Known about the structure:
- This protein has helices spanning 5-21, 32-35, 58-71, 77-85, 144-168, and strands at residues 24-31, 43-46, 90-93, 99-100, 106-107, 112-118, 124-128.
- The protein is an alpha/beta fold.
- The strands form two sheets. Strands 1-6-7-4 form a four-stranded mixed sheet. It has a three-stranded mixed sheet with strand order 3-2-5, with helices on one face.
- The chain has a single domain, classed as CATH 1.10.10.660.
- It starts with a helix and ends with a helix.
- The longest helix is centred in the C-terminal third of the chain and has 25 residues, at 144-168.
Amino acid sequence: MALTKEEVENANSKSVEGIVESDPWWVDVGLAREKIPAMGAKALLHAGPPINWEKASGPLKGAILGAVLYEGWAESEREAAALVKAGEVNLECTHSYNAVGPMAGVISPSMPVFELEDKRYGTKTYSNMNEGIGKVLRYGAYSKEVLTKLRWMSEKLAPVLQATIKKRK
């Protein structure tokens, strides 16, 4: 059933009003498995619509492989791909969890995420951290250098940001 032009304009107007009227606040930083409700132990949240391994773009496949390696679920690219192809890793949309990720971004359980709360509407949302420039997971890179940076962000950067947020409260 196609929407009328008026229905689309009304929906767009309502969406813009919600954005303008929102009151977002950065409330915490923590590991995705602790912050994102109902995120499974072997789930990877990805940007974009539902997709399976076969239909994923090259950069998204790279990000998925990198996240599997980062989590320690596999020790090689081949082993990581086999786990995903066998359905042992759940690929879920970020939006289904009130989360977002950039480009071919993937959020895995051990990755730190920002937690934001909209004080007007009471919703909580989550986003992974920007990895900076160069070789990054969101572009499908998963070299040792990329995984080392992700671990540093989780083990060093996230706790400092979390402590800073808690001092603000």
